[in-house]
Design goal:
alpha+beta, Neutral Protease, domain 2, 4 domains, 11 helices, 30 strands
Amino acid sequence: MAYYKTINNKLRQHCLYGCFLFMLVFLCSLASLGQTRDISKMGSGGKLNPLQAIMDIRHYTINLDVDIEKQSIKGNVEVRLNLSKQTDTLLLDLLDGMLVTKIKVNNATVKFNHQNDKIYITRNGGFKQGQQLIDVDYSGIPPVAVKPPWGGGFTWTKDSNGNPWMAINCQFEGGKIYFPCKDHPSDEPNEGVDLNITVPAALTVAGPGLLQKVITKKEKKTFYWKTNYTISNYCILFNIGKYKVVSDIYTTINGNKVPVEFYVLEVDTAHAKKLIETKIRDTKILEKYFGEYPWAKEKIGIAEVPNSGMEHQTMITFQNKFVYETIGQQDYSDNLFHEYAHEWWANKVTNKDWAHMWIQEGIATYAGALCMFELGGQEAYDKAINAHKRSIKNKKAVVQGEEINTQDTYTGDIYTKGSFFMHSLRFVTGDNVFFPTLKRLATDPAYTYDNFVTTTDVEQLFSKASGKNLKPFFDFYLRTTDVLNINLKETGYHKYEVKIDNYFMDLPVEVTTSNKTEKIIVPKEGVTLTSNTPPIIDAKGFYLKKISIQ
């Protein structure tokens, strides 16, 4: 400061003006950072930071004004959480491209440092064990999605009538791309989320949960959405468009009446009735196998978006130009069904760690095969499973360890090999065990809503139900890229030995001899069969395998 006192007034004015211009450019750069930054390699989850391990998120309140023309957001987020012990620092995740201007904890202004996509919040004396309320004021230009929904961000476009249309996707990057949060799959807001989103009055906001009210002020409308259930970080978002809401009522398998709401662009309302009818039929199929629709106290929601669909809780997104394929003389949309199956597998049954992402993607994909069976019979099911099998790359294990982020764990095999694994598991355990156990996984409170699951949880559930130790089977299929090496050897006149060279447990195998087709157990030492012709091993393809004939 002493230096500035020695310079003349004119020079001081130039310096101050220069500093002002520098700060203006700096702030503008901060505001535009979200627009220019490449977040395509950004992951979500992974190893949980110790500062966040002691935080239990209870509720988010997100208050945002969306500027369509500037493609920016401004507002504040309240994070209510419980600390399991005292700490000197609270830690939230938020993209550096967002400009944080003020933070209060329990109504008192605190210090913070926003860097490396994290907000470190401190104050003298730290923060005591128990409830904390963090209030973050911020603004900025969120990143633009490059290839949604796989490349996350905001999509700003227009519908065919020239009306603004905006969608958010952030499964791989996490909700931190646009709001301060704890970005880890192992912690969801147990008491739900309030989303209060302000947009130009001509537009509508589609959000999760139930719409509480809409308030019009001048040329803007604020839509107040509220969820009462726990919800995944990447499902806390909204879509904006010139929507019309087309509704119906669905009565669940347990007798609860649930509104069905399709937020469809006004230009596409002619397609709404058929889509809702398809949705209701799909709900009945999913409830048959996995129990009642998980969000019966809220809604069955669909929002039309300009990209491929996503499993956003109670408001899945949909886009396939309203084109259907025919299965068993019925119209079917794989995009619509798969994302809807995620209401059970992802939103209700949630991975504790992205390392176990196959649970949500693999079982949701397998649900599509079950739908094929319901619509087109066994042939349609077999065709779907065969397609999944042929798509398996097997370049790396489906489960690669623990505490792995989205980018590192994601491959196409979590869908296709995950689905085919369920098909194999069904053969190993038998339908009488498989289907009741699968439904239990989808309905038992130990695995749903506030609780999370890992591959070990699924394995132990099926092991107990089947009375077999299935861990070797789970490990072989999910934690390696191995396939069964089955050796068929002629050992005598009409005698053949079937043996698994890379044996890991006694396995049931379907074998067709000259006399019959039967399901036999192949132990470590193998089994000898009598047949006038070489036996056919696993003709229906229940396993990933190689067969050597000697």
